[in-house]
User: Which sequence fits this backbone?
Protein backbone atom coordinates (compact mmCIF):
# COMPACT_ATOMS: atom_id res chain seq x y z
CA UNK A 1 0.00 0.00 0.00
CA UNK A 2 1.41 3.40 -1.04
CA UNK A 3 0.29 5.11 2.19
CA UNK A 4 2.01 2.51 4.34
CA UNK A 5 5.21 2.76 2.29
CA UNK A 6 5.20 6.55 2.56
CA UNK A 7 4.58 6.33 6.31
CA UNK A 8 7.48 3.90 6.86
CA UNK A 9 9.82 5.98 4.68
CA UNK A 10 9.03 9.24 6.46
CA UNK A 11 9.37 7.72 9.91
CA UNK A 12 12.74 6.16 9.07
CA UNK A 13 13.99 9.38 7.49
CA UNK A 14 12.85 11.44 10.47
CA UNK A 15 14.33 8.91 12.89
CA UNK A 16 17.71 9.21 11.17
CA UNK A 17 17.57 13.00 11.44
CA UNK A 18 16.59 12.86 15.12
CA UNK A 19 19.33 10.29 15.74
CA UNK A 20 21.92 12.55 14.12
CA UNK A 21 20.90 15.53 16.27
CA UNK A 22 20.80 13.62 19.55
CA UNK A 23 24.09 11.81 18.88
CA UNK A 24 25.75 15.13 17.95
CA UNK A 25 24.69 16.63 21.29
CA UNK A 26 25.85 13.51 23.10
CA UNK A 27 29.23 13.54 21.36
CA UNK A 28 29.87 17.18 22.24
CA UNK A 29 29.09 16.55 25.92
CA UNK A 30 31.21 13.38 26.14
CA UNK A 31 34.15 14.85 24.19
CA UNK A 32 34.34 17.76 26.64
CA UNK A 33 34.40 15.33 29.57
CA UNK A 34 37.13 13.14 28.10
CA UNK A 35 39.20 16.15 26.99
CA UNK A 36 39.24 17.38 30.58
CA UNK A 37 40.59 13.97 31.64
CA UNK A 38 43.16 14.16 28.84
CA UNK A 39 44.23 17.61 30.06
CA UNK A 40 44.80 16.12 33.51
CA UNK A 41 46.94 13.37 32.00
CA UNK A 42 44.54 10.57 32.96
CA UNK A 43 44.01 9.47 29.36
CA UNK A 44 45.99 10.30 26.20
CA UNK A 45 44.51 12.73 23.68
CA UNK A 46 44.67 10.02 21.03
CA UNK A 47 42.34 7.81 23.06
CA UNK A 48 39.52 10.37 23.40
CA UNK A 49 37.85 9.45 20.11
CA UNK A 50 37.86 5.71 20.89
CA UNK A 51 36.37 6.24 24.34
CA UNK A 52 33.70 8.62 23.01
CA UNK A 53 32.61 6.16 20.30
CA UNK A 54 32.45 3.29 22.79
CA UNK A 55 30.51 5.40 25.28
CA UNK A 56 28.03 6.47 22.59
CA UNK A 57 27.45 2.87 21.49
CA UNK A 58 26.75 1.87 25.09
CA UNK A 59 23.79 4.28 25.27
CA UNK A 60 22.15 3.54 21.92
CA UNK A 61 19.94 0.81 23.39
CA UNK A 62 18.31 3.50 25.55
CA UNK A 63 18.40 6.26 22.94
CA UNK A 64 16.88 4.30 20.05
CA UNK A 65 13.38 3.87 21.59
CA UNK A 66 13.26 7.59 22.38
CA UNK A 67 14.39 8.53 18.86
CA UNK A 68 11.79 6.20 17.36
CA UNK A 69 9.07 7.66 19.61
CA UNK A 70 9.98 11.24 18.67
CA UNK A 71 10.10 10.40 14.96
CA UNK A 72 6.63 8.81 15.08
CA UNK A 73 5.12 11.81 16.86
CA UNK A 74 6.74 14.30 14.46
CA UNK A 75 5.53 12.48 11.34
CA UNK A 76 1.98 11.95 12.61
CA UNK A 77 1.76 15.53 13.87
CA UNK A 78 2.73 16.80 10.45
CA UNK A 79 0.16 14.58 8.75
CA UNK A 80 -2.54 15.86 11.08
CA UNK A 81 -1.44 19.49 10.59
CA UNK A 82 -1.47 19.12 6.81
CA UNK A 83 -4.94 17.47 7.02
CA UNK A 84 -3.59 14.33 5.40
CA UNK A 85 -5.08 12.21 8.17
CA UNK A 86 -8.49 13.83 7.62
CA UNK A 87 -8.31 13.00 3.91
CA UNK A 88 -7.29 9.42 4.69
CA UNK A 89 -10.12 9.08 7.23
CA UNK A 90 -12.67 10.28 4.67
CA UNK A 91 -11.28 7.61 2.32
CA UNK A 92 -11.84 4.87 4.87
CA UNK A 93 -8.25 4.70 6.18
CA UNK A 94 -8.40 5.07 9.95
CA UNK A 95 -5.82 4.90 12.72
CA UNK A 96 -6.07 1.14 13.03
CA UNK A 97 -4.87 0.84 9.41
CA UNK A 98 -1.48 2.18 10.52
CA UNK A 99 -0.91 -0.73 12.88
CA UNK A 100 0.57 -2.88 10.09
CA UNK A 101 3.33 -0.46 9.01
CA UNK A 102 3.83 0.43 12.66
CA UNK A 103 4.38 -3.23 13.50
CA UNK A 104 6.93 -3.46 10.67
CA UNK A 105 8.83 -0.49 12.09
CA UNK A 106 8.68 -1.91 15.62
CA UNK A 107 10.22 -5.18 14.40
CA UNK A 108 13.10 -3.33 12.69
CA UNK A 109 13.86 -0.99 15.59
CA UNK A 110 13.23 -3.77 18.11
CA UNK A 111 15.84 -5.92 16.41
CA UNK A 112 18.36 -3.08 16.68
CA UNK A 113 17.53 -2.47 20.33
CA UNK A 114 17.86 -6.20 21.08
CA UNK A 115 21.24 -6.32 19.33
CA UNK A 116 22.52 -3.30 21.24
CA UNK A 117 21.01 -4.26 24.60
CA UNK A 118 22.21 -7.87 24.70
CA UNK A 119 25.43 -7.71 22.71
CA UNK A 120 26.87 -4.38 21.59
CA UNK A 121 26.28 -2.36 24.77
CA UNK A 122 27.99 -4.88 27.11
CA UNK A 123 30.80 -5.30 24.57
CA UNK A 124 31.41 -1.55 24.17
CA UNK A 125 31.32 -1.01 27.94
CA UNK A 126 33.81 -3.84 28.49
CA UNK A 127 36.10 -2.45 25.78
CA UNK A 128 35.85 1.04 27.28
CA UNK A 129 36.67 -0.36 30.71
CA UNK A 130 39.75 -2.14 29.35
CA UNK A 131 40.93 1.00 27.55
CA UNK A 132 40.54 3.17 30.64
CA UNK A 133 42.40 0.61 32.71
CA UNK A 134 45.19 0.50 30.13
CA UNK A 135 45.42 4.27 29.93
CA UNK A 136 45.49 4.68 33.69
CA UNK A 137 48.13 2.00 34.13
CA UNK A 138 50.27 3.37 31.32
CA UNK A 139 49.94 7.06 32.20
CA UNK A 140 49.90 6.82 36.00
CA UNK A 141 52.42 4.10 36.65
CA UNK A 142 53.63 4.66 40.19
CA UNK A 143 52.80 8.33 40.10
CA UNK A 144 54.41 9.10 36.72
CA UNK A 145 52.10 10.86 34.25
CA UNK A 146 53.22 11.18 30.64
CA UNK A 147 53.66 14.69 29.31
CA UNK A 148 53.51 16.40 32.72
CA UNK A 149 55.88 17.34 35.51
CA UNK A 150 54.74 15.36 38.54
CA UNK A 151 55.90 16.02 42.05
CA UNK A 152 56.96 13.03 44.10
CA UNK A 153 54.68 12.00 46.93
CA UNK A 154 57.23 12.97 49.56
CA UNK A 155 57.78 16.36 47.93
CA UNK A 156 61.51 15.76 47.40
CA UNK A 157 61.52 15.33 43.66
CA UNK A 158 59.98 15.86 40.25
CA UNK A 159 59.41 13.37 37.43
CA UNK A 160 58.86 14.03 33.76
CA UNK A 161 58.12 11.40 31.11
CA UNK A 162 57.69 12.56 27.53
CA UNK A 163 55.86 9.55 26.14
CA UNK A 164 54.86 5.94 26.75
CA UNK A 165 55.46 3.22 24.15
CA UNK A 166 52.69 0.63 24.51
CA UNK A 167 54.36 -1.76 22.10
CA UNK A 168 57.48 -2.14 24.24
CA UNK A 169 55.96 -1.07 27.56
CA UNK A 170 58.73 1.51 28.07
CA UNK A 171 58.73 5.18 28.95
CA UNK A 172 60.68 7.45 26.62
CA UNK A 173 62.87 10.50 27.41
CA UNK A 174 62.70 10.46 31.19
CA UNK A 175 63.83 13.31 33.48
CA UNK A 176 64.07 12.91 37.27
CA UNK A 177 65.07 15.45 39.87
CA UNK A 178 65.51 14.15 43.41
CA UNK A 179 66.56 16.22 46.41
CA UNK A 180 67.02 13.01 48.36
CA UNK A 181 70.16 12.01 46.44
CA UNK A 182 73.47 12.06 48.30
CA UNK A 183 74.05 15.30 46.46
CA UNK A 184 71.36 17.29 44.72
CA UNK A 185 71.11 16.43 41.03
CA UNK A 186 69.10 15.12 38.13
CA UNK A 187 68.92 11.92 36.15
CA UNK A 188 67.99 11.69 32.47
CA UNK A 189 67.53 8.59 30.33
CA UNK A 190 66.34 7.66 26.88
CA UNK A 191 64.04 4.90 28.12
CA UNK A 192 62.69 3.52 31.38
CA UNK A 193 60.37 0.80 32.56
CA UNK A 194 58.53 -0.12 35.71
CA UNK A 195 59.37 -3.07 37.90
CA UNK A 196 58.29 -4.36 41.28
CA UNK A 197 60.23 -6.05 44.04
CA UNK A 198 58.56 -9.42 44.60
CA UNK A 199 59.52 -9.49 48.28
CA UNK A 200 58.64 -5.95 49.36
CA UNK A 201 56.20 -5.01 46.54
CA UNK A 202 58.06 -1.70 46.25
CA UNK A 203 57.75 0.07 42.90
CA UNK A 204 60.88 1.02 40.96
CA UNK A 205 61.49 3.03 37.83
CA UNK A 206 64.47 1.51 36.01
CA UNK A 207 66.20 4.04 33.74
CA UNK A 208 68.19 2.66 30.81
CA UNK A 209 71.12 4.31 28.96
CA UNK A 210 71.18 7.61 30.76
CA UNK A 211 73.29 10.01 32.79
CA UNK A 212 73.29 11.31 36.35
CA UNK A 213 74.34 14.90 37.04
CA UNK A 214 75.39 15.70 40.63
CA UNK A 215 76.30 18.99 42.24
CA UNK A 216 76.34 22.49 40.83
CA UNK A 217 77.79 23.05 37.34
CA UNK A 218 81.25 24.69 37.53
CA UNK A 219 81.98 23.56 41.09
CA UNK A 220 84.95 21.22 41.78
CA UNK A 221 82.70 18.44 43.04
CA UNK A 222 80.40 18.48 40.01
CA UNK A 223 80.35 15.16 38.20
CA UNK A 224 78.52 13.31 35.44
CA UNK A 225 77.97 9.56 35.64
CA UNK A 226 76.79 7.56 32.63
CA UNK A 227 74.98 4.31 33.32
CA UNK A 228 73.32 1.43 31.56
CA UNK A 229 70.64 0.87 34.24
CA UNK A 230 69.64 2.95 37.22
CA UNK A 231 66.74 2.03 39.53
CA UNK A 232 64.75 4.67 41.43
CA UNK A 233 62.22 3.80 44.09
CA UNK A 234 59.11 5.93 43.69
CA UNK A 235 55.97 6.22 45.76
CA UNK A 236 52.76 5.06 44.09
CA UNK A 237 50.18 7.70 43.30
CA UNK A 238 46.73 7.27 44.80
CA UNK A 239 44.60 5.88 42.01
CA UNK A 240 40.89 5.38 41.73
CA UNK A 241 40.35 1.70 41.09
CA UNK A 242 37.98 0.93 38.25
CA UNK A 243 35.50 -1.91 38.46
CA UNK A 244 33.81 -3.64 35.55
CA UNK A 245 30.31 -2.09 35.44
CA UNK A 246 27.26 -4.30 35.78
CA UNK A 247 26.06 -3.22 32.35
CA UNK A 248 29.20 -4.76 30.83
CA UNK A 249 28.58 -8.23 32.24
CA UNK A 250 27.70 -11.01 29.76
CA UNK A 251 24.12 -12.23 29.44
CA UNK A 252 24.87 -15.71 30.78
CA UNK A 253 26.32 -14.28 33.99
CA UNK A 254 23.31 -12.01 34.54
CA UNK A 255 20.70 -14.65 33.77
CA UNK A 256 22.16 -17.30 36.08
CA UNK A 257 23.17 -15.00 38.94
CA UNK A 258 21.40 -14.70 42.29
CA UNK A 259 22.88 -11.26 42.93
CA UNK A 260 20.05 -8.67 42.87
CA UNK A 261 22.24 -6.15 41.03
CA UNK A 262 23.04 -8.56 38.23
CA UNK A 263 19.50 -9.92 38.04
CA UNK A 264 18.04 -6.41 37.81
CA UNK A 265 20.33 -5.64 34.86
CA UNK A 266 19.03 -8.73 33.07
CA UNK A 267 15.41 -7.62 33.58
CA UNK A 268 16.30 -4.12 32.41
CA UNK A 269 17.79 -5.44 29.14
CA UNK A 270 14.60 -7.35 28.44
CA UNK A 271 12.35 -4.44 29.47
CA UNK A 272 13.87 -2.03 26.93
CA UNK A 273 12.63 -4.19 24.07
CA UNK A 274 9.01 -4.24 25.25
CA UNK A 275 8.86 -0.45 25.55
CA UNK A 276 8.92 -0.09 21.76
CA UNK A 277 5.44 -1.42 20.82
CA UNK A 278 3.83 0.32 23.79
CA UNK A 279 5.43 3.68 22.93
CA UNK A 280 4.45 3.19 19.28
CA UNK A 281 0.77 2.76 20.23
CA UNK A 282 0.95 5.85 22.45
CA UNK A 283 2.48 7.86 19.59
CA UNK A 284 -0.34 6.79 17.28
CA UNK A 285 -2.97 7.72 19.85
CA UNK A 286 -1.52 10.98 21.22
CA UNK A 287 -0.23 12.65 18.04
CA UNK A 288 -3.69 13.93 17.08
CA UNK A 289 -3.63 17.68 16.43
CA UNK A 290 -6.72 19.69 17.39
CA UNK A 291 -6.79 23.03 15.57
CA UNK A 292 -8.64 24.60 18.51
CA UNK A 293 -6.06 23.50 21.09
CA UNK A 294 -2.88 23.73 19.04
CA UNK A 295 -0.07 21.25 18.43
CA UNK A 296 1.58 21.40 21.84
CA UNK A 297 -1.14 19.61 23.84
CA UNK A 298 -0.58 16.19 22.30
CA UNK A 299 3.21 16.62 22.30
CA UNK A 300 3.31 17.52 25.99
CA UNK A 301 1.04 14.61 26.89
CA UNK A 302 3.14 12.20 24.79
CA UNK A 303 6.36 13.20 26.53
CA UNK A 304 4.71 13.03 29.94
CA UNK A 305 3.72 9.47 29.12
CA UNK A 306 7.31 8.65 28.12
CA UNK A 307 8.77 10.20 31.28
CA UNK A 308 6.34 8.49 33.65
CA UNK A 309 6.68 5.15 31.82
CA UNK A 310 10.49 5.07 31.85
CA UNK A 311 10.70 6.36 35.42
CA UNK A 312 8.29 3.70 36.69
CA UNK A 313 10.36 1.05 34.91
CA UNK A 314 13.52 2.46 36.47
CA UNK A 315 11.87 2.41 39.90
CA UNK A 316 10.83 -1.24 39.44
CA UNK A 317 14.40 -2.14 38.43
CA UNK A 318 15.69 -0.29 41.49
CA UNK A 319 13.44 -2.35 43.76
CA UNK A 320 14.92 -5.53 42.29
CA UNK A 321 18.46 -4.17 42.55
CA UNK A 322 18.00 -3.41 46.25
CA UNK A 323 16.69 -6.91 46.87
CA UNK A 324 13.22 -5.74 47.96
CA UNK A 325 11.65 -7.94 45.24
CA UNK A 326 13.05 -11.21 43.95
CA UNK A 327 11.26 -11.44 40.59
CA UNK A 328 10.57 -9.20 37.60
CA UNK A 329 6.87 -8.92 38.45
CA UNK A 330 6.94 -5.10 39.00
CA UNK A 331 8.45 -4.58 35.56
CA UNK A 332 5.77 -6.67 33.85
CA UNK A 333 3.07 -4.89 35.85
CA UNK A 334 4.34 -1.54 34.56
CA UNK A 335 4.42 -2.88 31.00
CA UNK A 336 0.92 -4.30 31.36
CA UNK A 337 -0.48 -1.11 32.86
CA UNK A 338 0.87 1.12 30.11
CA UNK A 339 -0.08 -1.35 27.37
CA UNK A 340 -3.70 -1.32 28.53
CA UNK A 341 -3.59 2.47 28.81
CA UNK A 342 -2.11 2.76 25.30
CA UNK A 343 -4.79 0.48 23.81
CA UNK A 344 -7.49 2.46 25.62
CA UNK A 345 -6.17 5.77 24.26
CA UNK A 346 -5.95 4.32 20.74
CA UNK A 347 -9.52 3.02 20.96
CA UNK A 348 -10.84 6.41 22.11
CA UNK A 349 -8.87 8.21 19.39
CA UNK A 350 -10.09 5.87 16.65
CA UNK A 351 -13.70 6.75 17.45
CA UNK A 352 -12.86 10.44 17.91
CA UNK A 353 -13.72 10.34 21.61
CA UNK A 354 -11.99 12.40 24.31
CA UNK A 355 -9.22 10.54 26.08
CA UNK A 356 -10.76 11.37 29.48
CA UNK A 357 -14.49 10.56 29.31
CA UNK A 358 -15.25 12.09 32.70
CA UNK A 359 -15.01 15.55 31.23
CA UNK A 360 -17.55 14.82 28.53
CA UNK A 361 -19.93 13.15 31.02
CA UNK A 362 -19.66 16.12 33.33
CA UNK A 363 -20.39 18.61 30.60
CA UNK A 364 -23.41 16.56 29.33
CA UNK A 365 -24.90 16.36 32.82
CA UNK A 366 -24.39 20.06 33.25
CA UNK A 367 -26.13 20.78 29.95
CA UNK A 368 -29.07 18.54 30.95
CA UNK A 369 -29.43 20.30 34.30
CA UNK A 370 -29.35 23.73 32.67
CA UNK A 371 -32.00 22.73 30.16
Assistant:
Amino acid sequence: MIIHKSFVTEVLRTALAVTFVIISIFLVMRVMGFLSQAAEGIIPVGGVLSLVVLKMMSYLDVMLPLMFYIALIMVLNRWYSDHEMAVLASSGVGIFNFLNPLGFLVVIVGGLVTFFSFYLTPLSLAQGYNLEQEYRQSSEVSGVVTGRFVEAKDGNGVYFVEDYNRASGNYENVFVYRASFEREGVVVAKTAYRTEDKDTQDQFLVLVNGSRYEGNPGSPDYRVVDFEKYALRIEPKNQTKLYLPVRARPNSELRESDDPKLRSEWYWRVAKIFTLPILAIFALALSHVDSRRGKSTGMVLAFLVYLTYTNMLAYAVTLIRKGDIDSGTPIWLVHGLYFVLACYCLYRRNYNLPLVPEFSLFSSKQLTANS
Observations:
- The chain has nine helices and six strands.
- The radius of gyration is 31 Å.
- Residues 139-143, 359-371 have pLDDT under 50 and may be disordered.
